Amino acid sequence: MEIRTGLFYLFSAILLFAAFRVITARNPVYAALFLVLTFFQASAVWLLLRAEFLAISLVLVYVGAVMVLFLFVVMMLDINIDTIRRGFWNHFPLAATIGALIALEMAAVLMGGFRTGEDRPAVAAAAVQAGQQLSNTKELGRLLYTEYLFPLEIAAVILLVAIVAAIALTHRSRKDSKHIDPSIQVRVKAADRVRLVKMPVMRPAPPEAPAAHVETKA
Question: Which helix (H) or strand (E) holds 16?
């Protein structure tokens, strides 16, 4: 067995273990850390496939930005794990059905991609023999903006809707919010905010009241 094949099996095994621990870890922080490990192993697999641009993009975008944000959010939120686990079995049938449907769809897409991409290695080998230097970044851009332009636009619209929804949920009016109108802050004067009060440096202590004597009868 070649060393590349051995590395592929090693990275794939760690990737599957980390992905399994993402959904089985009891602590959400541990789940996020296992997801970081999953991304690193996927990046290593892409490096073995000579997709350097995708590997670096995965590390920089997801591990360097998205997962750091997830960790900050998870650690700052006060999540009650016991409350979340109470309704697990009630929602398990629906979640299992949706998971099986997604798995079937991914299998159909992957099998279709394998069938249609059989001639691509031959084209790449012919280009290398002809002396043309292939760039996976250039080929990725060409495919995204030619054959996959419509799915790319749909993904962009979905991300835009997600951004707008996140902003709308953040800026919604709540009773416990301490939001202040910026126009009111601009019109505030210094005299309305600060008041100088002159007090004497030393002030005599008030006289002590005489203690009341209580007579007790034997």
Answer: helix 3-24
Are residues 74 and 89 in contact, defined by beta-carbon separation less than 8 angstroms? no
Asked if 179 and 173 touch (Cβ cutoff 8 Å), the reply is yes
Element holding 170 (H helix, E strand): helix 149-170
- Give dist(CA 176, CA 185) in Å, integer: 20
| Nearest of 15, 21, 22 to residue 39 by alpha carbon | 15
Query: Do 41 and 11 contact (CB within 8 A), yes or no?
Result: yes
DSSP type of residue 201: S
Q: Which of 134, 137, 152 is nearest to 57 (CA)?
A: 137
H-assigned helices in 27-148:
28-48, 52-57, 67-76, 81-86, 88-116, 120-129, 136-144
* Whether 77 contacts 68, CB under 8 Å: no
Cβ(39)–Cβ(59) under 8 Å? yes
- Alpha carbon distance 127, 135 (integer Å): 11
**In degrees, to the nearest 5, what angle opens at C-alpha 123 toward C-alphas 118 and 125?**
105
User: Which residue is listed with tokens 């054959």?
Assistant: 147
pTM of the model: 0.53
pLDDT in tens, 93-113: 888 898 888 888 877 766 765
- Dump pLDDT digits (tens) for 152-199: 899 889 989 988 887 877 766 666 667 677 777 778 777 777 777 777
